[in-house]
Design a protein that fits this description.
By secondary structure, this protein is an alpha+beta fold. It is built from 25 helices and 13 strands. The strands form 4 sheets. A 4-stranded mixed sheet has the order 2-1-3-4. α15 crosses α18 and α18 runs antiparallel to α20. The protein is extended.
């Protein structure tokens, strides 16, 4: 650095002087005398500038000129250092560290230069009159070159005449040595940093194919590919499973933890594959694991091989070749199983009536009724085309009404001959809002509601096992919408059109409508997304409907009309009950309200209970388990210091279902773990006041 080199000049001049070299006035006044000065020439005895100095040539520089030159040299070197750093591509944080070091170095230099300028405690050693003899190097050797601007060699042949500067007092070389040390450390730090940057650039070049993701809220995990395993595993892992099977879940989790790709064949989703399972294994038990075409076994065989530590070796040995054609084939999207769906025996009559009846708009009770026909008109058509008596035609009309092919326009009675108006099911005004209606009604023989509900539950359980988190609090709606399981569910939902729900028992009805509610929420989120505002939520719970048993059901009518025994919604401005007294759906309402239903219904939000599906035989026990899970998660928090209990806002909205606050807390204790139950018991038993606070409800989607 320039400032450092300037200090070094004075040291070198002092060294020459101490060796006995004599400096004349003529030498000082010539060419480079600006770098040589003595105390007698510069300072007076009092430390002021000598007035006799004013007449000296301008070439003799004062300390201020030296300071200015030194500062210019410092600025030049700092600029040069900055260029070098920029070429080295030093990061911002490293440039800040080096700038701080440079500032510290400049502060030390400024202190020294200020002392020189003020003359504080500074003395200049007078010239030494002792002669010094300098032995020049051999003529064949290269001549030494002095740093630019410091030592200037005279013309050839006068090598022993060297111009030099005076040294400062003895304490100045100590400061100069400190500055030189700091300068060397600073330069070394820059060199090391530039070298490390070059090494880092070389290491980064190895990963030039890696894409960097800088998205807020997104966590990207990069795992190095195991080339040996991927190269050796050329085959396919397949296993047969069933819905709600614990052993199948354990196998699925094991393969996911190992990072192995596998094909799952759920025989509840693909019933036609159960015959293949029996042919390959000799039994219908699951899980059954296949490595290519070879049967590996079930969970017991998998655990034994994993515990012995030979799983990877066995895996590479069995999957080291390409999968043959006789291995279990993966399910194919878009191909349905050929089921023996029987056609309804009345469908031939219905098709004739759809073509021959005069369907038109009529005026009835000061109202315009669309797409209807009179009962007498239908009787006449049947008599003419089927050659039957009038009484027989009326009896057929009643059968059509019971099987939900036709309904009275006001749902007042089944079927009667005369001037009463009826319409076909597909002409009902609520049909456009039913998303399980796909252009026409299901004209097959109606299945029992229990059979349809069981089949839907198995498919939906398979969906949850594949497209939700382990705790089922987060649902992959996009993955579900693109899955073969969901495609089959949508097709199967058409079997709900004309099922007979009245034939269900109380527990079957409870499980049926709990599962239907959760399935409709998943379908609704996939179809239209989760609502954001209050108006959108009203449409979400009321306008999204299913056609079930000849009637339309929204989320609101299922929850408040069926499960809550026809009670009004607590957060709705509508004071009317879901079902009127003349509504046929009122017959399906549960006779007794069970408050546990609120922990079995998931409305697709983060604050709602986890999504699940229930079995008719164990619905009560499964609801109690759902309540325990909800309260142990975040449904209740007890703060002893503030004597406050934090509850979910669900408990406030449906307080009429649970009772008063103290009754609610006592009821909740049946579903708490030992820790929370002990804290709550302590609050309730000491006789002090207990504050109940209801948490805000998070309406964001649980994706």
């Amino acid at each position: 650095m320039g400032s450092l080199n300037g200090i070094a000049v004075h040291d070198m001049a002092g060294d020459y002087e101490r060796k006995g070299e004599k400096i004349n006035k003529e030498d000082i006044s010539g060419g480079h005398a600006c770098e040589n000065f003595s105390s007698s020439d510069i300072f007076s005895a009092a430390g002021d500038l000598n007035p006799d100095d004013s007449g000296k040539p301008e070439t003799n520089r004062c300390p201020s000129d030296m300071i200015k030159a030194s500062q210019e040299t410092v600025e030049f070197d700092q600029e040069f250092s900055a260029i070098e750093i920029e070429k080295g591509d030093v990061p911002v944080e490293d440039r800040q560290e080096m700038s701080a070091m440079a500032e510290n170095l400049n502060e030390v230099q400024n202190v020294l230069l200020e002392d020189l300028d003020s003359g504080t405690d500074t003395e200049v050693i007078s010239e030494a009159n002792r002669d010094e003899q300098i032995i020049p190097p051999h003529s064949k050797l290269p001549k030494p070159e002095a740093p630019p601007g410091l030592l200037n060699l005279l013309p050839d042949g006068d090598f022993n005449q060297v111009e030099r500067s005076q040294s400062l007092k003895e304490n100045l070389p100590t400061i100069g040595k400190y500055i030189r040390d700091q300068s060397n450390s600073f330069s070394a730090a820059i060199s090391r940093r530039i070298s490390s940057l070059k090494e880092s650039d070389e290491s980064k070049s190895k990963w030039n194919n890696v894409t960097e993701f800088n998205l807020s809220g997104l966590k990207v995990i990069v795992k190095q590919k195991d080339e040996n395993r991927d190269f050796s595993l050329k085959g396919r892992i397949s296993f047969f499973s069933r819905s709600n099977c614990r052993d199948c879940t354990a196998v699925r989790l094991f393969f996911r933890e190992k990072g192995l790709k596998f094909v799952e064949i759920n025989v509840d989703v693909y019933p036609s594959r159960e015959k293949e399972l029996v042919e390959r294994t000799g039994a219908s038990s699951v899980p059954q694991i296949f490595f290519n075409e070879k049967l590996f076994g079930g969970l017991v065989a998998l655990n034994s091989l994993r515990n012995s530590g030979e799983f990877d070796q066995r895996l590479s040995g069995m999957l080291g070749r390409k999968c043959p054609d006789d291995a279990p084939a993966p399910p194919v999207y878009g191909f349905d199983d050929h089921e023996d769906d029987t056609v309804d025996e009345l469908i031939a009559i219905v098709r004739v009536l759809r073509q021959k009846l005069p369907i038109q708009d009529r005026l009835l009770k000061m109202k315009i009724v669309n797409n209807c026909f009179a009962g007498a008109e239908m009787v006449e058509v049947m008599i003419q085309h089927f050659d039957c008596g009038r009484q027989k035609a009326i009896e057929i009309g009643k059968q059509l009404a019971r099987k939900h092919f036709i309904h009275h326009v006001f749902r007042e009675h089944d079927f009667e001959d005369g001037n009463h108006f009826y319409r076909f099911l597909e002409h009902e005004p609520f049909i456009p809002r039913c998303i399980n209606f796909r252009g026409s009604t299901n004209d097959g023989e109606p299945k029992t509601a229990a059979a349809v509900g069981l089949r839907l539950t198995k498919i939906l359980s398979a969906i949850l096992e594949s497209y939700t988190s382990d705790d089922r609090r987060h649902v992959d709606y996009i993955g579900i919408s693109n899955s073969e399981e969901f495609r089959r569910y949508v097709i199967l939902a058409q079997d709900l059109h004309r099922v007979d729900i009245l034939a269900l028992s109380s527990d079957e009805k409870l499980a049926f409508f709990l599962n239907l509610y959760n399935a409709m929420v998943i379908h609704s989120v996939i179809r239209g997304g989760r609502p954001n505002g209050v108006i959108d939520r009203r449409s979400f719970f009321s306008d999204f409907q299913y056609l079930v048993g000849g009637n339309s059901y929204s989320l609101n009518t299922i929850k408040n009309g069926i499960l809550r025994n026809n009670r009004r919604s607590p957060y709705s401005l509508n004071i009317m009950k879901p079902f009127s007294n003349s509504d046929k759906r009122l017959e399906l309402a549960l006779p007794k309200l069970n408050p546990l239903i609120h922990f079995g219904l998931c409305n697709g939000t983060r604050s709602s209970p986890s999504v699940r599906f229930f079995s008719p035989t164990g619905v009560e026990a499964e609801l109690r388990s759902a309540a325990r899970e909800f309260f142990q998660r975040d449904g209740i928090e007890v703060d002893l210091d503030k004597r406050t209990v934090h509850l979910s806002r669900i408990m406030k909205w449906f307080s009429t279902d649970f009772g008063q606050e103290k009754e609610i807390l006592k009821w909740i204790m049946n579903y708490l773990d030992a820790t929370k139950a002990g804290l709550l018991t302590h609050l309730l038993s000491d006789g002090g006041p207990v504050n109940v606070v209801h948490n805000n409800y998070d309406w964001s989607v649980n994706s």
